[in-house]
Amino acid sequence: MAENTIRKIKWFWPWQDEQEEAWLRSMSQKGWHLSSVGLLGIYRFWAGEPRDYVYRLDYQTFPKKDKQEYQQLFRDAGWEYIGEMSASQYFRKEVKEEDSLEIFTDVESKIAKYKRILAFLWFFWIVLIAVFPVRGISIDNPYPWWGAIQVFTLLIWLFFTYTIIRLTLRIRQLRRL
Amino acid sequence: MLRDDTNKYLPLTESTCYIMLTLVEPLHGYAVMKKVEEISKGTVKVGPGTLYGAFTSLEKEGLIVKVKEEDRRKSYVLTPKGKKALMNQIKRLEIMTQNGLSVIGML
C-alpha cells in the first residue's frame, strides 16, 4: 500500500485557493488522486489512472450533524467529499461535458467564503493582542525563555496580520469585477 | 401585523432571489438547484457552496425555516418575513423591467 501512496507537504495561503485547486487537478491528471488532507499543508495521494478531476475548496465550520447535511448536498450535486484541513472542505468531481464545475456560482458567495476565513483570522488576531506578553519588554525578564515566547507570538501575530491584509485585498479585487 | 423591516435585505442577489422563489413550497437543497435551473431557463445555476451559504444566512435572518429532515436532507420553506422580502424585491424588479422595456427601442 505504501508504494501506491505519496505524501506531499505544500503551503497555500487562504487567498490562493484557486492555485491550490489547479495544483490538485494537475496531480490527478498525472495519476495522483487526493485521498486525504491533514493538518496544515499535508496532502496524501494514491496512484491510479490519470483522470481529469476538478477540485474545489469551501470553508465551513459546523457541528457534526450539520456536516452530514452539508456533505449530502454536495454529493447530490455530484461532488465527492475528500476531507477537511483546518475548516477548509475539499471536494472533487470528474470533468464531463455540460456539468457544472463550480461550487460557487456567483461572486457574492465566493466573497462570503473569504469573509468566513477573515472572521476566524480576526478572532485570533484579537486574542493574540489580548494575551501578548507585553510585560516581558521590561529589562528584568521573569524567565530566560520569556523573550523567545515574545518573538514567537509576535511572528504569529505578523502572520495573521499579513493574511488578513492579503485576503481583504482579494475580496476587493473580486468586488471590482 | 407584520412590520415591514425587510428592506435591509434588498437588493437580493439573483441567486438568492431564485432560491427564495423556489421555496414557496418546501424543498430540499438539490431540488432547489434543479428548480432554479429550470425556472430560470438555464440562465441561473446555483452551486452547492452558494446554496449552502444562502440557506445558512436566510435561516439565520428568519427568511426561511427548516420544515423537514430525512436522509440527511433538510427541507426549507419561506417564512412570512421571507415572503415579504421577496415581494418587495419583485416590486423593485418590476419597476426595473418597465424601465428597461421603455427604452428598449432606443437601444
Mean pLDDT of chain B comes to 94
Q: Considering residues with a beta carbon less than 8 A from a beta carbon on another chain, report the largest interface and each chain's count.
A: A-B, 23 and 23 residues
Secondary-structure content class of chain B:
alpha+beta
- CATH-level-2 architecture of chain B: Orthogonal Bundle
SSE succession of chain A = EHEEEHEEHH
The total count of helices of chain A amounts to 4
| Strands in their spatial order, largest beta sheet of chain A | 1-3-2
Oligomer: heterodimer
- Number-wise, the strands of chain A total 6
Write the CATH homologous superfamily of chain B.
Answer: Winged helix-like DNA-binding domain superfamily/Winged helix DNA-binding domain
N to C succession of SSEs of chain B: HEHHEEH
What CATH calls the topology of chain B is Arc Repressor Mutant, subunit A
Strand segment count of chain B: 3
N-to-C CA distance of chain B: 44 Å
Please state roughly what percent of the residues of chain A sit in beta strands, choosing from under 5%, 5-15%, 15-25%, 25-35%, 35-45% or over 45%.
15-25%
Number of helices of chain B: 4
Strand order in space, largest sheet of chain B: 1-3-2
Could you give the distance between the termini of chain A? 47 Å
Can you offer a commentary on this structure?
The complex is a heterodimer of chains A (177) and B (107). By secondary structure, chain A is of the alpha+beta class. Chain A folds into 2 domains: 2-94, no CATH class; 107-175. Helix content of chain A is 46%, strand content 21%. Chain A is built from 4 helices and 6 strands; from the N terminus they run βαβββαββαα. Chain A has helices spanning 17-29, 64-76, 107-131, 146-175; strands at residues 5-9, 32-37, 42-47, 53-59, 80-85, 88-94. In chain A, α3 (107-131) runs antiparallel to α4 (146-175). Chain B is of the alpha+beta class. Chain B has a single domain (9-106), classed as Orthogonal Bundle (Arc Repressor Mutant, subunit A). Chain B is built from 4 helices and 3 strands. Chain B has a 3-stranded antiparallel β-sheet. In chain B, β2 and β3 form a beta hairpin. In chain B, α1 packs across α2. The longest helix of chain B has 24 residues, at 80-103. The relative contact order of chain B is 0.18. Chains A and B meet through α2 and α3 of A and α2 and α3 of B.
